[in-house]
What does this fold into?
Amino acid sequence: AMVLPTVALADAVTVTDAYVPLAPKGVMAHAAYMSVTNDSAEKRSLIGVSAPGYAMAHLHQSMEKDGVVSMAAMHQLDLEPGQSVTFKPGGLHVMLMKPAGPVELGDTVDLVLTFANGDTLSVAAKVVKSDGSS
It folds into this structure.
């Protein structure tokens, strides 16, 4: 299992292990993964994400139905008190579209998570090899 030291905190929400797998040169879509934990006593709702180095960023869910894999944008991810959600390949992820420039191994991709209560959380996602190693 890959463990990255990245930790971000905002009003009792913790983000750890944020990373972006290195994509082949010229690819216009990347994905970001992380673990998000609600350490508060209240439900927290993640309603958006932005990435300054990309034209667009969206919360996405991959799913398989009848052998067909598809992706759909998510408008909200609710986190109950104490709940952790892991964004991982084949499931939840941040879809990053149209990078402003090349993304290299070891770079950092800045993400800003937005919650329904108006809080934002800045997260630094390290660019790692496609197998998850640095």
Q: What stands out?
A: The chain has no helices and eleven strands. Residues 65 and 71 are 11 Å apart (CA to CA). The first strand starts at residue 7 and ends at 10. The radius of gyration is 14 Å.
